[in-house]
């Protein structure tokens, strides 16, 4: 007999059908018996009898928040939540407190972020962001400016955070023969050696790297961790990339550093607040490139997360070890 399962989502959640597309739903329907209604705190009590023996739940962005008491009342036999999206920080502890396995497909969401980051690093090392706009006013000046950039052989890249995304970026950079320096207090020396990177501190990275990319975990301890003592060290013609979290920067300090040396460049896919305020200097600074949080899964990429969730469910139903289960210990350091 198939295990009973349910989707946890508000009725207007448009992400469910995108992440769990027809192909993913075909996989799920062969594995579990899905309840026909999406469940949220507003309707759970109406289906309290039907939900009593539900063992598995699926969700994605927009997961409605249940309290521990509500989970106990409405989903007393829930054993596994497969979350087809990224961070689980806002709800995972409540589910784990109910002895419910929490699975995040952050590994699937890491793929497009890493691809995006590597593309930006390659372009930054070629001076793309500085020379392209200059070309329209002066080809000669644009060509001359291109000579100051290192290209993609033996350039120095700084990676902040060697979690799922940071490690994937490092792996994808291997063919480029770059020197990769990493700041991550939680990265063991043996793991750094296996990755082929040099562990160092923030000051060293900001002072010496041609491109610096932020992938630090989104934790209270990382809020404002990047500030003037780092940004003021950036080399001329260096580039800072942020696909992590905007709150990890003291943005006023980054703005000051960019104004102080206009050859420095910032590529910001995330800001705090998001979007930036209309009067933010980021809007007007020519050495700032803003993108609307596109590094993560967009378009067809979101279905990859649904497939990861389906694959994890297959392993769960077969009694096999899960690849992407989340523990309380992991929540201390993961994004």
TrEMBL record:
Q: Which residues form the D-isomer specific 2-hydroxyacid dehydrogenase NAD-binding domain?
A: 151-295
Instruction: Give the transmembrane ranges.
Output: none
| InterPro entries in UniProt | D-isomer_2-hydroxyacid_DH, D-isomer_DH_NAD-bd, NAD(P)-bd_dom_sf
* UniProt cross-references to Pfam families, sorted A to Z: 2-Hacid_dh_C
Keywords associated with the record: NAD, Oxidoreductase
* SUPFAM superfamilies reported in the protein's UniProt record: NAD(P)-binding Rossmann-fold domains (SSF51735)
Against PANTHER family, the record matches this protein to:
2-HYDROXYACID DEHYDROGENASE YGL185C-RELATED (PTHR10996:SF178), 2-HYDROXYACID DEHYDROGENASE-RELATED (PTHR10996)
Protein name as catalogued? Hydroxyacid dehydrogenase
Source organism: Paenibacillus agricola
The upper taxonomy is: Bacteria, Bacillati, Bacillota, Bacilli, Bacillales
């Amino acid at each position: 007999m198939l295990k009973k399962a349910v989707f946890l989502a508000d009725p207007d959640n448009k992400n469910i059908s995108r992440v769990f597309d027809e192909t993913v739903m075909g996989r799920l329907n062969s594995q579990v018996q899905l309840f026909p209604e999406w469940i949220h705190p507003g309707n759970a009590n109406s289906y309290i009898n039907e939900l009593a023996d539900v063992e598995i739940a699926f969700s994605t962005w927009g997961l409605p928040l249940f309290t521990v008491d509500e989970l106990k009342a409405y989903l007393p036999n829930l054993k596994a939540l497969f979350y087809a999206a990224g961070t689980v920080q806002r709800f995972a502890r409540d589910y784990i407190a109910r002895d419910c396995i929490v699975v995040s497909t952050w590994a699937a969401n890491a793929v497009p972020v890493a691809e995006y980051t590597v593309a930006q690093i390659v372009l930054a090392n070629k001076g793309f962001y500085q020379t392209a706009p200059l070309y329209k006013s002066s080809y000669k000046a644009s060509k001359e400016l291109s000579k100051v950039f290192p290209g993609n052989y033996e350039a120095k890249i700084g990676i902040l955070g060697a979690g799922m995304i940071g490690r994937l970026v490092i792996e994808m950079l291997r063919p480029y023969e770059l020197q990769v320096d990493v700041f991550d207090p939680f990265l063991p020396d043996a793991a750094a050696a296996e990755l082929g990177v040099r562990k160092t501190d923030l000051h060293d990275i900001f002072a010496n790297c041609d491109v610096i990319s932020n992938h630090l975990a989104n934790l209270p301890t990382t809020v404002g961790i990047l500030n003037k003592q780092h940004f003021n060290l950036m080399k001329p013609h260096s580039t800072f990339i942020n696909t992590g979290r905007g709150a990890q920067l003291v943005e006023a300090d980054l703005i000051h550093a960019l104004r102080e040396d206009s050859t420095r460049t910032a590529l910001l896919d995330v800001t705090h607040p998001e979007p930036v305020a209309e009067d933010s200097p980021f809007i007007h600074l020519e050495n700032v490139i803003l993108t609307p949080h596109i590094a993560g899964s967009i378009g067809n990429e979101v279905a990859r997360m649904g497939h990861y969730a389906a694959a994890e469910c297959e392993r769960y139903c077969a009694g096999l070890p899960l690849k992407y289960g989340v523990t309380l210990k992991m929540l201390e350091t993961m994004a």
